[in-house]
């Protein structure tokens, strides 16, 4: 998905596509940060994702929501050129959202499991997330 390979339809379309591509990159950075347990990197990535989403909202409002409609899950029948590229980038983001969600859920389960193991090892009795440990 390169901006060099498509003829731009208008400035808002090009800007929106750039924002989508930046969001894809930042979502990947966020998942990498979670996988590497880098809290600072995750905080920076989430801040960038939030800023990009706010900017994308402003872009779609300025464009009369035409671009937001291109980002829906169903492929518009008339989509071609940059519109098709925007739809594909939006679809990539939907897929990344599913991966991000699974990673966050797994990370949460891992943290709960490790906390329960640490509590059990230190002799503290807890019932956490359905995990039972002995009272000592």
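Q: What amino acid sequence fits the structure above?
A:
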């Amino acid at each position: 998905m390169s901006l060099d390979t498509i003829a731009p339809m208008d400035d808002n379309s090009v800007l929106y596509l750039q924002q989508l591509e930046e969001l894809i990159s930042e979502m990947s950075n966020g998942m990498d940060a979670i996988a590497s347990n880098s809290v600072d990197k995750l905080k920076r990535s989430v801040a960038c994702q939030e800023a990009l989403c706010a900017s994308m909202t402003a872009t779609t409002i300025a464009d009369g929501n035409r671009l937001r409609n291109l980002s829906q899950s169903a492929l518009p029948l008339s989509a071609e050129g940059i519109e098709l590229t925007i739809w594909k980038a939006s679809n990539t983001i939907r897929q990344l959202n599913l991966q991000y969600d699974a990673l966050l859920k797994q990370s949460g389960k891992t943290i709960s499991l490790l906390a329960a193991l640490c509590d059990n090892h230190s002799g503290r009795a807890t019932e956490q997330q359905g995990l039972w440990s002995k009272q000592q």
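Q: And what stands out in the fold?
A: The chain has four helices and two strands.
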